[in-house]
Design brief:
Elements (H helix, E strand, L loop, with lengths): L9 E5 L10 H9 L6 E5 L6 H14 L4 E4 L11 H9 L2 E4 L4 H7 L4 H12 L2 E5 L1 H4 L4 E6 L10 E5 L7 E5 L7 H10 L4 E5 L3 E6 L3 E6 L2 E6 L4 E2 L12 E2 L2 E6 L2 E4 L4 E5 L5 H9 L2
Helix pairs in contact: 3-5
Amino acid sequence: MPRYPSTTQTLFIIGGAEDRVGRASLLRRFVRITGGRQARLVVIPTASSFQDEVVSSYTEVFNRFGVKEVGVVNPQSRRDAHDEAAVALIDQATGIFMSGGSQLRLSQYFPGTPLGDALHRAHARGTVVAGTSAGASIMSEFMISMGDEGITPVQRASQISAGLGLLKGVIVDQHFAQRSRYGRLMSVVASSPSLLGIGIDEDTAIEVVDGARFTVHGRGGVTVIDCRDVTTDAPDARRGAPLLVSGAVIHTLPAGATFDLATATLVEFVEQHPDVGATLASSTH
């Protein structure tokens, strides 16, 4: 029987554009928690328009960190998502990595199919499931599949689609600061106040343990939007109108922060010096 690194249920969710050529600290962390040199990894490039390049790039990085077993699962239709060999690869993996691209491709082929079921089994038994960009958005039960960018929340500015549901009670957005996605995430969460909004910057990740708490890694920040006690005109605002959202609680969390999802509170913060700090310091000498 395959041996897995942990029975802890871990998600490693990256906001996109993670470093692959330098220190690659996020991908290095992913390899470490999946078993290091003994890891058996599966890359899912399905979201990308450049799937061969994605497979080559991530395989090179994982090989550089000593991983020898890197498989590929890449359905091109819902029929492909029934492929027994692809399901077997996921069933034997210690780590699964979903690339960026279009999350709508992922939502077409994974939720409600044998491959999607295999991802849930993998997560339940302790395999680390990771995703970047589109691969980050698909983690939650509902995901933003498209929407306008900007700071101001606007009525009906986003489209919601079904995700994998590996992380309950939240909705994840990515490239958060870099693409000015604060408004669209706020509008979604204000309209669905039972959900926490989690916006993850580029080259930044949250490591979620047992669906209960997460720790931030990387160069940027993570924004959590809590609208459980807001006053909003979301039920009545006309399409395209700026939304009233009053009383939202916003958390901005850099690397070293640990956050409890059930209570929506900061658990711990350990001051760190992420890669960007080291880069700036070295440039001054």
